[in-house]
Amino acid sequence: MTGFWIGVAALCVVALAFLLWPLWRQRRSTGQWSWSALAAVALTVPVAVGLYLSVSTWQPEALERSSSRAALIAQAAEKLRQQPDDVEGWRLLGRSYVAIGEYGAAANAFAEAWRRTPVPDNDLKLSFAEAQVLADRMALDGPAGDLIEQVLAEEPSNPKALWYGSQRALGLGDARAARSRLTRLLELGPPEEIAQILRAQLTQLPQADEGSAASAGGEGAPAAEGPSITLRVRLAEELADRPIGSNA
């Protein structure tokens, strides 16, 4: 942090030199200072610093924390290479990689934990699947998606599994399953910003399956549309009283 402000001070000195040089040349040629210009130069530094502090989103402290965290993760990874049977260590390393956006490295760390776990629990299944999906969206259609389905079968109200499960269903074209999972996730009361995303996805899903046809010939089926022909039959008077089938 101290180094940052030293750099800022150096840049301010350079900026002032550029601004004062033409004023100095004017002073030598005319014998007078431009006091209004000097006042403007004097205000340049405090105004610039004030604007920076009010509008800048860069946080040197956050950058330093990020660098320190990356260094700690690198140390943990090196330690696990020396002690590879530490299953919990691999899981923690995987979560750490996810936190800093290193999803491929996270998937590798969870894979190490997976190989050393006789019966992986749902947390490891979901963490391993999530890291694979974050590294490659297409992983949802493969083994990572199968792991998510396994978790949903045992924990149908798991929020993370519901989210990834709904995205898997969308990718497979199963709108009904996607709607069911998104609705269930919305019922769990997520934060409002997440709820808005869920509602937006729900509104984009079809309301019902299309393409089903009514049973032909069923009771109450609508009459076929188109032209019709009406026939009217009359019997001759001498045949009106003759029994049907009589030859006489």
What topology emerges from the helices and strands here?
Layout: H1 2-30, H2 35-55, H3 60-82, H4 87-99, H5 103-115, H6 122-135, H7 143-154, H8 159-171, H9 175-187, H10 192-204, H11 237-240
Helix pairs in contact: 1-2, 3-4, 4-5, 4-6, 5-6, 6-7, 7-8, 8-9, 9-10
What this model shows, in words?
The chain has 248 residues and is mainly alpha-helical. The termini are far apart.
The count of DSSP E runs of length 2 or more, i.e. the number of strands, is 0
Kindly report the average pLDDT value. Answer: 75
Low-confidence regions: 209-248
By secondary-structure content and strand pairing, the structural class works out as: mainly alpha
How is the biggest beta sheet arranged?
Answer: none
- Give the proportion of residues in helices: 55-70%
Q: Please tally the helical runs, counting DSSP H or I stretches of 4 or more residues.
A: 11
Gyration radius, rounded: 38 Å
Principal-axes geometry comes out as flat
In percent terms, what proportion of residues is strand? under 5%
Q: What is the N-to-C order of secondary-structure elements (H for helix, E for strand)?
A: HHHHHHHHHHH
Note the gap between the termini.
Answer: 123 Å
Describe the structure concisely.
This protein has 248 residues and is mostly helical. It has helices spanning 2-30, 35-55, 60-82, 87-99, 103-115, 122-135, 143-154, 159-171, 175-187, 192-204, 237-240.
State the main characteristics:
68% helix, 0% strand, single chain, flat, 248 residues, mainly alpha
